[in-house]
Amino acid sequence: MPELTDLEWELVCLVLWLLASGVAAVAVALFWRWLLTPLAAKRADRLSSTLVEVTDGAVPWVAFSAVLYTGSQAAFQGFAQSEMGQTRTGSCWTGCCGAIYVNLVLALTYLTYCFCKGLVDSHAERFRDRTHAELDSQAVLLFQRFAKLLFLTIAVTIIFEHFDVSIAGILAAGSIGAFAIAFAARDTLANMISGIILMIDRPFKRGDRITLPSGEWGDVVEIGLRTTKVLSFTQKVIVIPNAEIAKSQVVNHSAPDQQLKIEHHLGVAYSSDMKKVKRILFGILRQHPDILNYPPYQVYFVEFGDSALNLTLFFWIGDYRERYRVTDEVNMAIKDRFEAEGVEIPFPQHDLHLRSLPPGGLTPGPAG
User: Considering only 36-50, 66-80, 294-308, which range has the smallest mean pLDDT?
Assistant: First the structure.
């Protein structure tokens, strides 16, 4: 039987360790999914279940990489100390060890990222359960993106140091390139920074009804990294750059709660009995089922207008989304009651008084 060459022995060892690593990965995956996952699901602590779930794909990869790396190191040292390791240089095993090391670093980095992601997801869920408020998914997504970039940078640094590659020049070139990119995309970066500020400061959240500086109003449907989208009353999506909305005055009708104070103006004829008018208006507000008794509704006689005696009504409703419906019902009730009680709602008018002239008409004045 012919003897195997050095290269063939190395390939055989590599195949054997690959098989052993595959068996280890399958065994860990089966243990993770068939035993550990059901046990974690039975625990009252959601953190355990979340961590087991998000690391399900990373753990077998780590097991495969760890077994393969351990075997490669042992085999490489054995070849280096043997006679055929001393007589041959540039062994293919050396290149394989480098690739295996890179694979192990990436696997451990991915496992660490999955672990951090599970912690964030678990705490976000607990936050929602405790406060009954939704933690903005954009903030969680932003953390995940930054975490990916951070862990990838750490992994690349570790790999470069392992191969004795200086990263100082790379960092210098990257800094210059980053400065050029930042200068070219300064508007985009300003919008992204403003988006982060909006997510942290939370002047409004998804679902809130806001009034924009332009006077348009609508419901917030998305707070992104670059823009905020608002669905208007006419079902049109208004897209506003975050930098613009962050420096503007925005009215949030949903904060601190959904109650809304409505200011309603009304005019009656000068011949009206104001005590009777106020009594009618108080009765209408008291009988409406959606008008709150507290804070109390109010009716004020505020002005002697050009054509009418002007009143202002203040009343509260429980949901700002019902503003137009309630206002319509109050107006209909006022019109019906005023017609029934003989109270006139005047329209703008002017009285023209004509003065009679003497028979001779106008007398011309002295010549100037």
Answer: 66-80
Rounded CA separation 266/330 (Å): 12
Whether 218 has a pLDDT exceeding 60, the answer reads yes
DSSP string, 86-133: HH--S-HHHHHHHHHHHHHHHHHHHHHHHHHHHHHHHHHHHHHHHHS-
Could you tell me if 142 and 199 are in contact, meaning their C-beta atoms sit under 8 angstroms apart?
A: yes
Angle between the N-to-C axes of helices 6-31 and 58-81, in degrees from 0 to 180, rounded to the nearest 10: 150
Whether cis (ω within 30° of 0) applies to the bond prior to 296 is no
- Residues forming a β-bridge with 220: 230
Residue 177 CA, chain-centre distance (Å), reads: 30
Q: What is the phi-psi region of residue 237: left when phi exceeds 0, alpha when psi lies from -120 to 50, beta otherwise?
A: beta
Omega before 256 within 30 of 0, i.e. cis: yes
Q: 211: burial class by Cβ within 10 Å (0-12, 13-18, 19+)? A: middle
Buried b vs exposed e over 184-201: b needs ≥16 C-beta within 10 Å?
A: eeeeeebbbebbbebbee
| Side chain identity at residue 351, one-letter code | D
This prediction's pTM: 0.53
**C-alpha distance from residue 80 to each of 75, 89, 367 (Å):** 9, 10, 131
In the chain the domains, ranked by start, together with CATH numbers, are 6-82+92-165 (no CATH), 204-252 (2.30.30.60), 260-341 (3.30.70.100)
Contact, 18 vs 73, CB < 8 A? no
Two tokens, residue 87: 């007589």
State how far the Cα of 368 lies from the Cα of 357, in Å rounded to an integer. 24
